[in-house]
From TrEMBL:
Gene3D superfamilies: ESAT-6-like. The keyword Transport applies. Its main location: cytoplasm. InterPro entries: Snf7_fam. The gene is Chmp4c. GO terms for biological process: late endosome to vacuole transport via multivesicular body sorting pathway; protein transport; vesicle budding from membrane. Belongs to the SNF7 family. It is a peripheral membrane protein. Keywords: Coiled coil, Cytoplasm, Endosome, Membrane, Protein transport, Transport. This is CHM4C protein. It comes from the Eukaryota. It is found in: Cytoplasm, Cytosol; Late endosome membrane. It comes from Alaudala cheleensis (Asian short-toed lark). Residues 1-25 are annotated as: Disordered.
Length: 163
């Protein structure tokens, strides 16, 4: 079975069929395979176009009928090439969209894990205890500042006069 028929008939692993569709990695791999196959076909058509052009030049004015036939084949190949270009653009767009969706899904999962971890960390915290602790810290800082101020003031040994 060719790659294209497998692609359209859903020829894939049994695991992907069992869970309702392919995984993003499987889909990306298939899209890349299809892109590669179409790129090879593009190269083939480009060489065919070159050959037909050479045949048309070779026959030129000597055998107009053969030259016209070669030009018609060339035109057909160019039409196929344009169709492949459009298909490749569509596949590339779809692949990029799938990659972005997969990235967004992973980011969302990780954000969910982080939220669960934060919830677990905050389970043992009580807001009232935190407020009390912060008040105690503030009081102790005030006491330390008062002590520091008291120590740093000069002792007034004879500097002050009572008039």
């Amino acid at each position: 079975m060719s790659k294209i028929s497998k692609f359209f008939k859903g020829g894939g692993s049994a695991a992907s069929k069992g869970r309702g569709g392919p995984s993003p990695q499987e889909a990306l791999a298939r899209l890349r395979e299809t892109e590669e196959m179409l790129s090879k076909k593009q190269e083939y058509l480009e060489t065919r176009i070159e050959r037909e052009l050479a045949v048309a030049r070779q026959h030129g004015t000597k055998n107009k009928r053969a030259a016209l036939q070669a030009l018609k084949r060339k035109k057909r190949y160019e039409k196929q090439l344009n169709q492949i270009d459009g298909t490749l653009s569509t596949i590339e767009f779809q692949r990029e969209a799938l990659e972005n969706s997969h990235t967004n899904t992973e980011v969302l999962k990780n954000m969910g894990y982080a939220a669960q971890a934060m919830k677990k960390v905050h389970e043992n915290m009580d807001l009232n205890k935190i407020d009390d602790l912060m008040q105690d810290i503030t009081e102790q800082q005030d006491v330390a500042q008062e002590i520091s101020d008291a120590i740093s003031n000069r002792a007034a040994f004879g500097d002050e006069f009572d008039e």
